[in-house]
Amino acid sequence: MQRWFVARNPKSAGLAHIKKKIGDVPEIVSHMHERRNFSSIRGAISLCRRASDRLYLLAICNTHGNPNFFNLFILVKIMLNKSTHTFLYFAYGANMFSRRIKESIAPSAVAIDIGYVEGRRFSFGKVSRDGSGKCDIEATGNLKDRAYGVLYRISTKEKSNLGKAEGLGIGYSEANIQIVTATGTHTATTYVASYKEAVLRPYQWYKALVIAGAVEHGLPVEYCEWLRTFEAQADANTDRRAEKEAQLFGNLPLHRFQVDANMRQAAVNEV
After folding, report:
1. 76, 54 in Cβ contact below 8 A?
2. Among 14, 47, 141, 168, whose Cα sits 20 to 30 Å from the Cα of 239?
3. 129 domain residue, yes or no
4. pLDDT-based confidence at 39, cuts 50/70/90?
């Protein structure tokens, strides 16, 4: 509350006092403060990752009589709510498939973009308890390596459920990585394998979920074709296979069957 009071009433204290109460600020704020340049205020606020930085920038604007203070105040509140209540998650495996992640893991998940991480390579090299291979993006140190995936925004209330579904602490560890998209670079949470083997094969249904998610979200065609080159194995557990395939297929509609009348008659005549 103290920070909000200072931000809304900056004239009650000097800028030095405001800065002291709110904390350090990023270079973008200091630069704008020194030059009194508020023409790009909206973009500047969005660049401030910490709430305190955004509030400080807002306080500076009001101190210098910015006429759009109220609008900026509302904008910051919206951005704070977004940053507090949601997080970015990078899915590169079976969770790319929206039906899988929304139905059983994170119902709030919304795909906002696609992108890739540099210096990592996709594989099915994560050791699974069922003996099959699960997805991983192993760090290679080679920036030419790219692992593509889907960027989701998810409610923080569902993060623990996502971690459980991902096997956090029992095969996977959490990592914050930089995702390159067509509109910029974003920091997102993902999960990488803790235990790996060079040669593992995924179950056929698992591989199909990965490819379905890649195709659904429009990942590069070449990358989708590359995913198809991985060898897979049949799942001997028929109940599990049926459950996962049902999730994959969903309620696929059957389009009305149509055939050319002449072709139909020719087929009849052949009988």
Report:
1. yes
2. 168
3. yes
4. very low
